[in-house]
Design brief:
142 residues, alpha+beta, Alpha-Beta Plaits
Length: 142
Amino acid sequence: MSAKAIACCVLLILLLMFFVLKGIRSPRVANAGEEQALIITIPLHSGTANTDEQNKQLYALEDRLIVAIKESVAGEYDGNEIGERVFTIYIYGPSAERLFSVVLPILKKFRPPPGSYVIKRYGKSGSKEDRVALDGGDATAG
């Protein structure tokens, strides 16, 4: 190989290393701790032993939320948790307010039972939170 070809290869390798190292030091994706969250809590009518009809309604709600969040590109649906007398849904994204504007019409149509609410969390766990009551589909700041 000629000296000119070797110099070009070395230069190309150095440029490639520069871009790789730059990408490692400045990630483009926000850390999960920096993301905001919506946490939707829906009381279960029958404690932890859900009825088949109640399960169908909750999983249909989940399906509608997943589609709406994906289509809006507002964030990401993370999953659910069935606990002591509650069904909890977790959604994350860069803006809790934007996520809320996407899910509120779906929640109103669903008509959640009394005692249902949404937590809008503005950062990682322990950050400022707002609780919004969902009574029969109507949202009121709480």
